[in-house]
Amino acid sequence: MKKSLLIIAPVAMLALAACNKTETPAEGEGAEGAEAAAPVEMPPAIVDSGAYRCGDGTVLYVDFFGNEGKDGPKVAAGISIGEKGKDTIRVEAPKAEEPAEGEVASAEAPAPDAAAAPAGPMKSADGEASLSGEGASINVKLPGKGAQTCKG
Predict the structure, then answer these.
(1) Does this model's pTM top 0.85?
(2) pLDDT tens per residue across span 20-48
(3) Are 140 and 150 in contact (CB under 8 A)?
(4) 117 with 31: CB under 8 angstroms?
(5) 110, 104 in Cβ contact below 8 A?
(6) Rg for the chain (alpha carbons), in Å?
């Protein structure tokens, strides 16, 4: 009985080794897929957070997002009402306008590659919520409520 197990074990190992065959492309093959992959841009990071109390007694928790650190322009914010992280409303800064195709930028306008913070309040995708300001005082409009000032 022991002899038959000793003979079967190497045969089984050979069969398993044959199943684990991987095909690697020859040099130069398959490189197109690696080159064609576009670089992935990371989402903005939380650069500042604050708790604010509004005139009507509402407590807001706001996380500001940006790509250039705490002193850089804020590109979005998440507003949580009453409890941090719950039912967050996302608002985003307006996109910088680019000149239309064939249109030449004027001498007064900054170069297209210059990082200029777009003007105006951050707004939600549905336009129901907006946020402006940062630091100790913000102006916010929430769905179903009017605009109000909140202090941190």
Answers:
(1) no
(2) 666 665 565 555 555 667 888 888 999 99
(3) yes
(4) no
(5) no
(6) 28
